[in-house]
């Protein structure tokens, strides 16, 4: 049985499931869509917001985004389809709470001291005394934070919108007209950090769930390529073998571990690293995290040549499936929203047709009436311990180190691990100025790696132990031990 960590996760599940059922039953139209808010929000007592009318309005906008349309707050016969839009993350205006925007505020802890360091240090002269306490004039405040740093009582609190605080590129902005959040598409890397941070669920990702259902209904050869972080996502007692059985029940031809592609990537990227170092390159980064790649393109474009030219495990596995079945439809399943953006890159869009998150797959199973826990497990052993380890921070490093043990080389592998946007920014700055402490950067946009992805069903604290157990179950104890690597012989593993 699926359990939900938050009510927000449950609400998102219910909306996705209803849209999926509509698609399965060939009743995906405006009339049926109008019914969803009343199916989910019953009665006249509000549970989440000020009133049921607002709750239903939000559900309606969620439903539009779930079916691949813009959540623009408008009721119309013709919805705005966002299928061809490279943007993945959208703000649901109806759900945005317009969080407080005064970044620095003086709390009750202020003692009204006579030293008043906060006033002395303020470059804008925005701090005065009123009623014996410090007061910040937000009309002139520059939000530099110096007052917070010097206050001996820690009486200055920093209040920042959760979505804005976690955005690695500053793409999350405030609309000056209505104080609602908005996304600058030019700066957004579609990492989904804001989606996971918003406590009101006002930010969400567009879905391909309808497209996948149509492919299944048309009896196409649909393959699921699943991220190793899938373990534990459908209940602590559900094995990956049971998940594979659930996919088959839904009509998927097969389920393949993306970790097998990770083994191939470790080999290719390891060889690439050796070649680059022999040529005199100072450092190289991984390329498996699409959020990290997008970040470098946006914020460190002069360092883009240092990024590995190797494809991600998702693309490697997708190309392998396509080489074995020319009629295949490949669906990647993982916790990452940036992967939905990655498959649109011109050089690699031949490999994967759709991306679905764990949230969406959970809803798809619900629409089919399938409980993975009740399925009989099917043997799953596609990848090595190290390939499965790609799902957590340090996993890429460990896999390349393991592969390089089999190589006769004098090149020293000196990795630097960067997990989360703050570490990535710090590491890339050091790399740019020539002060990096190593020669290989493993960058993971999500803290802790993919298991900390924004569309995971369970928190990282629970999934980490599940991943470790799943990895140890592999019969392939070294990358080069994976006999499935021969399936990648002759395949193009360049981006």
What would you say about this model in short?
This protein has 495 residues and is of the alpha/beta class. It has helices at 7-24, 30-33, 36-40, 52-66, 117-121, 146-150, 162-166, 193-197, 209-217, 240-250, 258-279, 290-299, 313-324, 338-342, 358-368, 385-388, 395-404, 421-432, 460-472, and strands at residues 89-91, 104-106, 127-130, 133-136, 156-158, 172-174, 181-183, 203-205, 221-226, 254-257, 284-285, 328-334, 354-357, 415-419, 440-444.
Number of helices: 19
- Provide the CATH top-level class of the largest domain: Alpha Beta
**What is the end-to-end distance?**
40 Å
Q: What is the count of structural domains?
A: 3
Shape assignment: globular
Question: Which structural class is indicated by helix and strand composition?
Answer: alpha/beta
Average of pLDDT: 93
Annotated CATH homologous superfamily of the largest domain = Fe-only Hydrogenase (Larger Subunit), Chain L, domain 3
CATH topology of the largest domain: Fe-only Hydrogenase (Larger Subunit), Chain L, domain 3
What is the count of β-strands? 15
Strand content: 5-15%
Give the helix proportion (percent range).
25-40%
Structural features, described:
This is Iron hydrogenase 1. InterPro entries: 4Fe4S_Fe-S-bd, 4Fe4S_Fe_S_CS, Cytosolic_Fe-S_CAF, Fe_hydrogenase, Fe_hydrogenase_lsu_C, LdpA_Fe-S-bd, Mono_FeFe_hydrog. This protein is of the alpha/beta class. The protein folds into three domains: 7-98 and 162-207, Alpha-Beta Plaits; 104-158, Alpha-Beta Plaits (2-Layer Sandwich); 210-488, 3-Layer(aba) Sandwich (Fe-only Hydrogenase (Larger Subunit), Chain L, domain 3). It has 19 helices and 15 strands. It has helices at residues 7-24, 30-33, 36-40, 52-66, 117-121, 146-150, 162-166, 193-197, 209-217, 240-250, 258-279, 290-299, 313-324, 338-342, 358-368, 385-388, 395-404, 421-432, 460-472; strands spanning 89-91, 104-106, 127-130, 133-136, 156-158, 172-174, 181-183, 203-205, 221-226, 254-257, 284-285, 328-334, 354-357, 415-419, 440-444. The chain has a four-stranded parallel sheet, with helices on both faces. A three-stranded parallel sheet has the order 11-15-14. The longest helix is centred in the middle third of the chain and has 22 residues, at 258-279.
